[in-house]
Amino acid sequence: MDHSQAGQQAPDARRAAWMRVLSLADPAALEGAFSGLGSVPQHQMLRPAQTGMAMVRARSGGTGARFNLGEMTVTRCAVTLDAAGAGVVGVAYVQGRSLRHAEQAAVADALLQLPEWHDTVQAQLIQPLARQHADKVDAQARVAAQTKVEFFTMVRGED
User: Fold this and answer.
1) What pTM, to 2 d.p., does this model score?
2) For the chain, does the N or the C end have fewer beta carbons within 10 angstroms?
3) Are 44 and 32 in contact (CB under 8 A)?
4) How big is the CA angle at 19 (ends 100 and 99), to the nearest 5 degrees?
């Protein structure tokens, strides 16, 4: 791997992380956090939010042969900002049919690519949404842990 590829991995990983947070966010929580950003630059649709289907593939045991598990509903959107960062493209893919969720996630993705917006969007949008998602996952894990059953086998003595 040459130096240019190594330098590209870190920004790509950071972008993948915030795109994950945006896609997993509760649409109502995203709406509330997004409105707290105030006056964001205007955006133009490159690909208006549209809903379709995507094939979900899986592996048996996580390592076996791949198979088609089924289809899921996905909404995608791509925007560009009318800001000083002309040429910045924000994209989003979200599970379900929420056109507004996909559009807001795409705009947030574009804003996060602008240095003058990055820290604000991270602090007011990404970090709170990530905490909310982590809390939800922890609560689900606690509920699941309550149903855990320990099985043990008793060894029979010699007859």
Assistant:
1) 0.78
2) C
3) no
4) 15
